Amino acid sequence: MEDLKWWQSGVIYQIYPRSFQDTNGDGIGDLPGIIQRLNHVVRLGIDAIWICPIYPSPMADFGYDVADYCDIAPIFGNLADFDRLIAEAHSRGLRVILDFVPNHTSNQHSWFLESQSSRDNPKRNWYIWKDAGQEGGLPNNWLSHFGGPAWEWDEATKQYYYHSFLKEQPDLNWRNPAVKQAMCDVLRFWLDRGVDGFRVDVLWMLIKDDQFRDNPVNHGYVPSESSYKRLLPLFTANRPEVHEIVAEMRAVLDRYPDRVLIGEIYLPIEELVTYYGRDLKGAQLPFNFQLIQAAWNARSIAEIMDQYEAALPLGAWPNWVLGNHDKARIASRIGEAQARVAAMLLLTLHGTPTIYYGEEIGMKDVPIAPDKVQDPAEKNEPGLGLGRDPERTPMPWDGSLLAGFTIGTPWLPLGPDHASANVAAMCDSDESLLNLYHRLIALRRGNPALTHGIIEAVGVEGNILSYERRQGNDRLAIVLNLGHEPAQVSLPPGRVLLSTHLDRVGEDVDQGVSLRTDEGIIVRVSIEG
Ligand code: GLC
């Protein structure tokens, strides 16, 4: 059996640090809090945690506006806390993946302050500065993801600078070798401290067109969407030159044993897979967000599975993501009952699964009152449903008033159901979603067919999605009822290893099997003869 790397056989768990565990009463999670809760992660069976940005930042975009790449924001702790986190994680066999935000800095980063200070500052060319266009207008039509033009006028030096996101997040100029050098040094800074890999923010957006051509109009745009979608980002994202940069980052990691480069990339499958790079020397895991975007029905998911497997370059390792800090939570998207089916899907698919914190207890989007909104995506374009606060709320650990998250005022409200839907309550309940996650991960760990095995026989019958994972003689059939009606499914003889309802383990399957509404099962198929 082929030896898999930890990032291939393992399960990744994303931590949004502001909302995981507060230890100093400021209502915001911190590094000592993550350390305090590592045992939860370990008990769940996780192999690696990815922590969203923890660097010093004015927090205009909650840490995705970095003011210093080589330090820790005081609200989260300090470098000593970080070293302790690494040591505590490693001693439990857990890897630590950091969020790396190379596309843009904060406008408070010393690099930008220098760059902005005068046109002939040596760092001027570290960012993307342009003269005004005709009649003093914008240099071109490029738009910001958070609404409005992507160009901000600097009155003192009489030029515009480019920002893909907020004006507080100026884009770095990745065509400048000095920028590359400085950012590779940042990677080494953390690798030397023992970090096991990086999730790279908006990796596909790093390079922009060198001729600054206008983006074409998106004729499919509907006004209920973000205004950013009015144009197609042809000249501002997924430029061919980006692959060279990905390969350079990868080369930095390859100087250290066993590290992983993960890319945040929202692109169609055919484009996404190009980020594995030439000779697989790009990202080892270009994040696959297909399940986040898919319509939740058996046919759509089967199609995605087939397309993705077919598109993977030879030797490339697949991965699957169900949720993250930018998208509505899975239980809110598809309902509580289907969230259990989704867990079984995620943890039996071929490739590395990534779990967003709180999905293991079925956290839902928490409604945020207008005066409590924090996210600039909502503040800048209110009412379109773009806000990401609902999926970033504090983790409820127990049934106490503030859920064991803080003794202060939580920076975002706890969910209305936290008194019953919390980690402690679910630990005590045999049928809980938390227990299902735990069992699924244990099954995955204990059965090479689920980690190493090929995936085949993807089939759809009405609301039923089925597939097999096979390793040598071991054959596991996964049958998922994505509908709300019971169904009868034909299956070869075998024995149930797990049901999403957690009650059929050991049941013999003969001619076929009855699935209850919203039920999924894993069956070990008997070896013929
Ligand atoms: C990524 C992050 C998102 C952030 C944006 C800008 O998409 O996931 O949270 O707002 O990049 O850095």
Overall description:
This protein is an alpha/beta fold and 529 residues long. It has 2 domains: 6-103 and 177-204 and 234-438, Glycosidases (TIM Barrel); 454-525, Golgi alpha-mannosidase II (Immunoglobulin-like, Sandwich), CATH 2.60.40. The chain contains 16 helices and 19 strands. The chain has helices spanning 6-9, 31-36, 38-44, 79-91, 110-117, 177-192, 242-254, 269-272, 290-293, 298-311, 330-334, 336-348, 376-380, 423-427, 433-446, 448-451, and strands at 12-15, 48-51, 95-100, 129-130, 151-154, 159-162, 197-200, 260-263, 285-286, 319-321, 352-356, 454-461, 464-471, 474-481, 487-490, 494-499, 508-509, 512-515, 520-525. The strands form 4 sheets. An 8-stranded parallel β-sheet has the order 9-8-7-3-2-1-11-10. The chain has a 6-stranded antiparallel β-sheet with strand order 12-13-14-19-16-17. Strands 4-6-5 form a 3-stranded antiparallel β-sheet, with no helix packed on it. A hairpin with a 2-residue loop joins strand 12 (454-461) and strand 13 (464-471). The longest helix has 16 residues, at 177-192. Alpha-D-glucopyranose binds at residues 61, 64, 101, 165, 201-202, 264, 325-326. Alpha-D-glucopyranose binds next to loops.
Number of DSSP-assigned strands:
19
Order of strands across the biggest sheet? Answer: 9-8-7-3-2-1-11-10
Q: Examine the coordinates and then state which fold CATH places here, giving the name of the CATH topology of the largest domain.
A: TIM Barrel
**Cofactors, ions, other ligands:** alpha-D-glucopyranose
The number of domains: 2
- CATH C-level class of the largest domain: Alpha Beta
Low-confidence stretches: none
Helix tally equals 16
Largest sheet: 8 strands, parallel
Broad structural category: alpha/beta
CATH H-tier superfamily of the largest domain: Glycosidases
Shape: globular
- Under the CATH scheme, which architecture of the largest domain would be assigned? Alpha-Beta Barrel
- Using only C-alpha atoms, the radius of gyration works out to 24 Å
Rounded average pLDDT: 97
Which percent bin holds the helix content?
A: 25-40%
Q: Give the strand content.
A: 15-25%
For the terminal residues, how far apart are their CA atoms? 24 Å
